[in-house]
Amino acid sequence: xxxxxxxxxRRPEAWYAVRTRSNxxxxxxxxxxxxxxxxxxxxxxxxxxxxxxxxxIELPLFPGYLFARIADxxxxxxxxxxxxGVVQILGHGQSIEPVPDEQVQAVRTLLSANASCLTHPFLxxxxxxxIRAGVLKGLEGFLVRLKNEFRLVISVELLCQSVAxxxxxxxxxxxxxxxxxxxx
Length: 184
What we know:
Blueprint lengths: L2 H7 L3 E8 L4 H10 L3 E3 L2 E7 L4 E7 L4 E7 L2 H8 L4 E4 L1 E2 L2 E2 L1 E2 L1 H12 L4 E4 L7 E4 L8 E7 L2 E8 L4 E7 L4 E3 L2 H7 L1
Antiparallel strand pairs: 1-5, 1-6, 1-9, 2-5, 3-4, 7-8, 10-14, 11-12, 11-15, 12-13, 13-14
């Protein structure tokens, strides 16, 4: 095959959500990373207390799921599906569905900012906003008020799950109608 046809037949890589068996997220992440794949397992730290001790443990932000960046080819799919603990790559019927880069990057940004994150009921509609200052600058999501606190909620639509972080309402600006149409 010539280089020209090789380039045109390549499919671009995208993020895909991979469902795992219960408590297999870290094992699957390690195995896929060992195969040279770009894998993202969003995790957070949580304090747990037992009768005899306290411990901070790392938990998956979306239990049972991780993200892998691959091209949508049979070979790439098979490489993931053969990993121990993988149940499926999310999609509809026989086709897999990519997770938008913006959603994965938003979760990465939220976690790397060391903001206090917590799971949140899935949101699909609401007041869309952008953070204009601080460590979360540029992040877009839904603004929710809970008692006297404001939270930015980032939804991963394919998983139907959301994550939230506290934000200062002074650093929030509503998205214009044009911005919201660009996202839709």
